[in-house]
Specification:
By secondary structure, this protein is an alpha/beta fold. The protein folds into 2 domains: 146 residues, Rossmann fold, CATH 3.40.50; 170 residues, Nitrogenase molybdenum iron protein domain (Rossmann fold, 3-Layer(aba) Sandwich). Helices cover 38% and strands 13% of the residues. Strands 7, 8, 9, 10, 11 and 12 form a 6-stranded mixed beta sheet that branches. A 4-stranded parallel beta sheet has the order 2-1-5-6, with helices on both faces. The longest helix is centred in the middle third of the chain and has 22 residues. It is globular.
């Protein structure tokens, strides 16, 4: 089977099922596992990746209001690849090529490949998406094994969280300028990890916030998991908070419990590594209860992260600047 994936989470599901060698093309965003980076790219973003988050938000809103595309699909490359299966999504117009465009392109191809859409809005539905891809590729047994392993890790976090005496108020922020609440599966991750999310709602889209709303929630822990941005890129945006009135009075800020995570690699991708995201978050909220599994990056405390970067820059004056966002088009999912 020749498989083309149009979103990173789908690529990770395909690879988890042991089908990496059958991937013949991916989106420009697909970068994990590392081997997929060399595959032909069948999409590109029409939003400049170098723009600051406020400009990205403006451009995305402008294009969505005029029904302009955020992506282009390279139909010529797609035709050359002759896929038997195209995996995409219909959940969010900001996260991948529009479903109608993919379907139209598939119908125009000589071999009429099958198209499957993944639309998970919760952690459980992510596991169903794994089963969906497994069924479409004839890998049901492998799919069940992957799901069992992921569910076992989820259950371990749940069991530990059930014994907690206290649960902190949490603000998981998915964008900085303007601020966005977390959405879909992320409020669920907060609950399972042992926190209380008061700004985002399980199974619902993220929404634009005001900083007054964030401050009124008085979060005891703030986690920045900006959609499509890595940790360093997010750190580069944090000076925006200096202009936020009363930010220094937020309990999380006073206690030093403000964290930055890699939103691009983890919390934004509804694939197998969403369970990694749960474990990273659980450790940040309750480090004495939830140990961080080997190989996973801990969420960075903001003060410590700035100290590390400042030290690194002092030692290496030739270090390149903080990178631009790799995922401009996913900024306001």
């Amino acid at each position: 089977m020749r498989i083309v994936s149009l979103l990173p989470a789908a690529t990770e599901i395909v690879c988890a099922l042991g089908l990496e060698e059958q991937l013949v093309g991916v989106s420009h965003e697909c970068d994990y596992p590392l081997s997929v980076r060399d595959l032909p790219k069948v999409t590109r973003s029409l939003i400049p990746a170098s723009a600051p988050s406020g400009e990205i938000d403006r451009l995305v809103r402008e294009r969505l209001s005029t029904q302009s595309a955020l992506y282009s699909l390279d139909v010529a490359v797609l035709e050359e690849l002759e896929p038997d299966l195209i995996v995409t999504q219909a959940l969010c117009d900001v996260c991948a090529v529009a479903q109608d465009e993919v379907q139209a392109a598939a119908c125009a191809l000589p071999n009429a490949p099958r198209v499957i859409n993944l639309e998970p809005q919760s952690l459980g539905e992510v596991l169903l998406a794994v089963r969906h891809v497994a069924h479409a590729t004839g890998m049901q047994s492998r799919g069940e094994l992957v799901v069992r392993q992921l569910q076992a890790r989820i259950d371990t976090v749940i069991d530990r969280s059930e014994k907690l005496a206290t649960r902190p108020r949490v603000a998981l922020i998915e964008w900085l300028d303007p601020p966005f609440s977390c959405g879909h599966w992320n409020p669920e991750l907060v609950r399972l990890a042992g926190g209380v999310e008061g700004l985002g709602h399980e199974g619902e889209r993220s929404r634009t916030l005001t900083w007054d709303e964030v401050i009124a929630w008085q979060p005891e822990v703030v986690v920045f998991a900006c959609c499509g941005l890595d940790a360093e890129r997010t750190l580069g945006e944090l000076p925006l908070l200096q202009a936020v009135a009363n930010w220094q009075d937020v309990p999380a800020v006073r206690s030093g419990r403000v964290y930055v995570t890699d939103g691009s690699q983890y919390f934004s991708r509804p694939g197998p590594r969403l369970v990694d995201s749960l474990e990273i978050l659980a450790h940040a909220l309750h480090p004495d209860v939830h140990p961080l599994p080997n190989g996973l990056p801990a969420a960075l405390r903001v003060d410590a992260a700035f100290r590390e970067i400042k030290s690194f820059h002092a030692e290496d004056a030739e270090r390149p600047p903080i990178p631009s966002p790799r995922s401009a088009e996913t900024a306001t999912a």
